[in-house]
């Protein structure tokens, strides 16, 4: 099935919008009236949704406004000068494409079962469209049919309440589950019942926790949404179609999910990956993620934040942060006996590229020493070429387990049975002892979640961060938990014992790097990294590296909802602006 979809995309048979594509070439005599007559024609149009709406490499590039990852330049959204004039995201063409399709399939002469199947798939895409809009703006106008150009009442309507829109999203997801393909897609590319279930578990967890932790919006039924998340996750888990990719090799199993070139070609990978964006050399469909993650200018020099790195557990299940002065442990030592996901997310001492050469964290590409490579291929051939074909997972079974655990904990239903099925299983895959917590972790409370005391929720949030880092979910998590201020956390890096003195970065007994300020020291055999006002250390002549020191980043609580773009409100003044966004 993957090959079929890729062939359609490559051949240009993905259409652009509604009846425009049916009439742009009168010579072919295809019109809205004589199309959609059989399932093949319906499927041909439905493939446009994959091209227009399916997430791609933006997943691996999206975490630019979180506490976990350091990037070259802070997002403009975190400056006080950001205003509705800078806003975007108010596009509705994809929705029109979906609603047009639904209306045409309803009138198609195909059987009811076929109609229900394809309308169910379209409703999945509509749910995805509206969920993204609600996350961004809150209340938005709701449309379930195509508007005509002369429908001024519809075109200029007010925003509908979030509660109404999200109820419609839930209805659409339930329809996609009811009528979706009940068999597993081994290629991980098509929308099936299981894709809809996994996505529902994500959507309902978001909405339930957003309503719980944002009382200022007075949104009802938080518990109902959490229960719906549990329901979706339980159905997917009970199906037995998916499981964690776990061959017993804790040093490789996690990263294999992000470097596999074909989910279908590696059945163990498709056990966990439910939905993915795939690439294929034979169709000349590839991406540039390895290049972006190994470039000083092309990407964002993604690096992990030391405050987050500290939260990775030791392999015996104990906390790294229980060690005295944990921030002053040097890179080579801090990487020892840690959760194996850490060394599969950043370059570690002893990491080698496929040519056999050791590759230390490269300060031409990393900002603070925690050089991310989770999405990078080991072959340096791809460091400067847009030819990588590793698949990009969109939905994984691991996330479903995390959604399930969190929803159960928020409902007060967390216990050993749920823990063992979810958090323990994830930790053991990563080579970590999965013992239940005896008490709440004070490090997590102090640095991340000061208003949270539940020991299970704290561990679930730790696990979620370590498992899903770099998969473009963290900002959503911070928004729903009402922890937006974490987006301004100081960007710390590895520990430097002394400025202007060589340092052994990988623990092999040989100095290999020197961080210096002012005049470069007269030392040979090391790489030099210059410090300055923007890139410094915490404690004068030693301490943790700090990137973007003094660069403005601020958080205001009205930023939990983005502003309606100013130009949009000029065209439709009935759209009320979100509170706090003066124009």
Explain what you see:
37% of the residues lie in helices and 7% in strands. With 583 residues, the chain is mostly helical. The strands form 4 sheets. A 3-stranded antiparallel beta sheet has the order 5-10-9, with no helix packed on it. A 3-stranded mixed beta sheet has the order 6-7-8, with no helix packed on it. The protein has a two-stranded antiparallel sheet with strand order 1-3. Helix 7 (112-137) runs antiparallel to helix 9 (162-179), helix 10 runs parallel beside helix 17 and helix 11 (222-239) packs antiparallel against helix 17. The chain is globular.
- Gap between N and C termini: 49 Å
Strand order of the largest sheet: 5-10-9
Radius of gyration: 25 Å
H/I helix tally: 23
Helix percent reads 25-40%
β-sheet strand percentage: 5-15%
Structural class based on helices, strands and sheet pairing: mainly alpha
Shape: globular
| Secondary structure: number of strands | 10
Compute the average pLDDT.
94
User: Residue ranges: pLDDT <50 for 5 or more in a row?
Assistant: 10-17, 19-29
Question: Quick one: biggest sheet?
Answer: 3 strands, antiparallel
Keywords:
mainly alpha, 583 residues, 10 strands
